[in-house]
Amino acid sequence: MDKTAVLDLGGSLVAQEKMDIDFLRKIRAFLIDWLNEDEDRKLIIIIGGGYPARVFQNTYRQVMADRASSDEQDWIGVMATRLNAQLVKALFADYCSDEVVTDPTAVDGMTGRVLVGAGWKPGWSTDYDAVLLAEYFGAKRVLNLSNIEKVYTADPRKDPKAQPLDAISWTDYRLMCGDKWTPGMNAPFDPVASKKAQEIGLEVVVADGRDLDNLKNILDGQPYKGTLIS
Q1: Cα separations (Å) of 116 from 33, 64, 133, 162, 168?
Q2: pTM of the entire predicted model
Q3: What average pLDDT does range 54-75 have in this prediction?
Q4: CA-to-CA distance for 54 and 59, rounded, in angstroms?
Q5: Is 168 helix (H, G, I), strand (E, B) or coil?
Q6: Farthest CA pair distance, the chain
Q7: What is the overall mean pLDDT for the chain?
Q8: 45 forms bridges with which residues in the sheet?
Q9: CATH topology for 4-229?
């Protein structure tokens, strides 16, 4: 497995309406243990917007109604990711000596063993930023961790016949999710990021980030629950 693991964390794992302090303690300890098993290991952690992004974007849409701008919604989401990322950087302060990355095209290496990234600008989600950072650091895979266990053939909340997938090609996945990004879009991996990932031959594993035993299996190259997009 890669010595540098790229974790694309859904904001729901970090920032909820009621913060899950116990989980944050557990995942922090887990990732520090993983780092300390091998002194050459490094972590790139990119954080989504989570609850704050949804609340503030929805507030903006309600106030502005038909005058709501997609770019403004995206900027609100970007700022939420940066707040969440600053929290995560602080949690890994002993390992993270660089500032939070807000422009993945301006990175110049990393001085610590953990690098934390956030949203960049309108037009895509933090998934795209994760892909760019994976490309820069030479990682072959991004772990897309959120509160879903697998990619489904359709939205299981709307289609009772939706089936979970163990693996899917980028071509088939992109046929499912489309090519257009909209602010607050609910897709396992965003369309803009998917196009770039396919272009550079990057793999993405979609899995439930709350299951730390399963995350250990993914990081160690063992059988796991999740969906491989490649």
Answers
A1: 18, 33, 10, 34, 28
A2: 0.94
A3: 93
A4: 8
A5: strand
A6: 53
A7: 94
A8: 7, 116
A9: Carbamate kinase (3.40.1160)
Q: What number is the average pLDDT over the span 195-206? A: 97
Paired strand residues for 47: 9
The mean pLDDT of 104-114, rounded to a whole number, is: 96
Instruction: Let me know: does 35 contact 72? Beta carbons within 8 Å.
Output: no
pLDDT-derived band of residue 186, with 50, 70 and 90 as boundaries?
confident
Pick from 104, 93, 122, 109: which is nearest to 8 by CA? 104
How far apart are the C-alpha atoms of 124 and 20, rounded to whole Å?
A: 27
User: Using a CB cutoff of 8 Å and minimum separation of 24, what contacts does 37-40 make?
Assistant: 38/3, 40/3
Rounded Cα–Cα distance for residues 33 and 159 (Å): 40
Whether 9 and 45 have beta carbons less than 8 Å apart is answered as yes
- Residue 229 one-letter amino acid: I
pLDDT in tens, 10-55: 999 999 988 999 999 999 999 999 999 999 999 999 999 999 999 9
Q: CB-hemisphere CA count at 13 Å for 134?
A: 27
In 10 A of CB 38, how many CB atoms? 9
The structure tokens listed for 194 are 């998917």
Residue 69, amino acid: S
CA atoms within 13 A on the CB side of 77: 30
